[in-house]
Amino acid sequence: MRESVKETVKDILTHYLELNKYRKTPERYTILDAVYSTTGHFTLEELGDKLIDEYNFRVSRATLYNTLKLFMELRLVIRHRVQSTTRYEACYDSNGHCHQVCTMCGRVTEVKSQPVIDAIRSLRAKRFHKDGFTLYIYGICSSCQAKITRKSREEERKKNQNR
User: Fold this and answer.
1) Chain-centre distance for alpha carbon 24
2) Model pLDDT for residues 39-57, shown as the tens digit of each residue
3) What is the Cα–Cα distance from 71 to 116, expressed in whole angstroms?
4) Do 108 and 145 contact (CB within 8 A), yes or no?
5) What is the pLDDT of residues 59-113, one digit of tens each?
6) DSSP structural state of residue 129
7) Which residue in 4, 7, 28 sits closest to 17, CA to CA?
8) SS3 assignment, position 74
9) Helix-, strand-, coil-residue percentages of the chain, each rounded to 5
10) How far apart are CA 66 and CA 42, in angstroms?
């Protein structure tokens, strides 16, 4: 992630903490750096592992959860509840995007769709200020579709052999 974005989000956090007379803890800043060094979506567990592996910094699950909750309030992080998992994503410099969600394996991939972005930008919302958007498109990814096709062919082949 660009260093200017990291500095901007750090300034936003610092300003908020000072304004509300909260402590500026190393945990908050390290977690923020880890979030903005992560590409794409991540779970709480993946973020905890990253902090240990790459930062040699161990924090409790409660600290991670509460810090991400604070970042969501500041609109620095967005939470996605997709199927049975909760994933997070840095969102400061993102105006919006689409997600493809495989209903078989749960894989989530981002899709940039200029027509969708343009349509939402031109949308006139009454008494509402748009910050961004997230669109979920559900279906079956190519890997799962290939598995379904292979299984179907195999069943057909076995059926023909038994005749």
Assistant:
1) 25
2) 888 999 999 999 999 999 9
3) 27
4) no
5) 999 999 999 999 999 999 999 888 778 989 998 877 677 889 898 988 888 888 8
6) -
7) 28
8) coil
9) 50, 20, 30
10) 16
- Count of residues in the chain: 163
What lies within 8 Å, CB to CB, of 33 at 6+ separation is 6, 10, 55
This model's pTM is above 0.70: yes
- Location of structure tokens 């779970």: 43
Among 13-17, 99-103, 116-120, top mean pLDDT goes to 13-17
Are 67 and 56 in contact by the 8 Å Cβ rule? The answer is no
Strand pairing report for 85-90 and 77-82: antiparallel
